[in-house]
């Protein structure tokens, strides 16, 4: 299986942005959910990176939106190339900034595809990745298995 060199794009949500997101710090009461990617309001793409082109194009995005009074983040594979559908997954993981993984979500890519969403929390780290099916970005290492992006809440 052909591997494409991983690229990294990082960003941090500034303190001023956090003050514009009411309830971001209090989102701890909520957990993983499939609802925000399709039902949230005020949805925006926080970060996007495209790897490859044509039939091998992989665009991974961080999406943010408000659902049920809580701000969430999730991963999205956006308009993938035809060689990506069925052969790759969109993977989204969260850790608490201290190295403790809060969980992950994975979905087989079939057109534009979403992961479950996790509440936006200050200092938490979010990783979105397009990974060949059967590969683990955690145990195999993201730079060796997938094209990924990270943000810090």
From the spread of the alpha carbons, the general shape counts as globular
Please identify the top-level CATH class: Mainly Beta
For this structure, the CATH topology is: Immunoglobulin-like
The percentage helix is under 10%
Account of the 3D structure:
The protein has one domain: Immunoglobulin-like, CATH 2.60.40. The chain has three helices and nine strands. The chain has helices at 15-19, 36-39, 142-145; strands at residues 10-12, 41-51, 58-67, 70-77, 88-95, 101-108, 113-119, 125-132, 147-152. The strands form two sheets. Strands 1-9-8-5-6 form a five-stranded mixed beta sheet. The longest helix is centred in the first third of the chain and has 5 residues, at 15-19.
Keywords:
153 residues; mainly beta; Immunoglobulin-like; five-stranded mixed sheet; four-stranded antiparallel sheet; 9 strands; 8% helix; 45% strand; disordered N terminus
Task: Tell me briefly what this model is.
The chain is mostly beta strands. The protein is built from 3 helices and 9 strands; from the N terminus they run βααβββββββαβ. A hairpin with a 5-residue loop joins β5 and β6.
Describe how the helices and strands are arranged.
Layout: E1 10-12, H1 15-19, H2 36-39, E2 41-51, E3 58-67, E4 70-77, E5 88-95, E6 101-108, E7 113-119, E8 125-132, H3 142-145, E9 147-152
Parallel strand pairs: 1-9
Antiparallel strand pairs: 2-3, 3-4, 4-7, 5-6, 5-8, 8-9
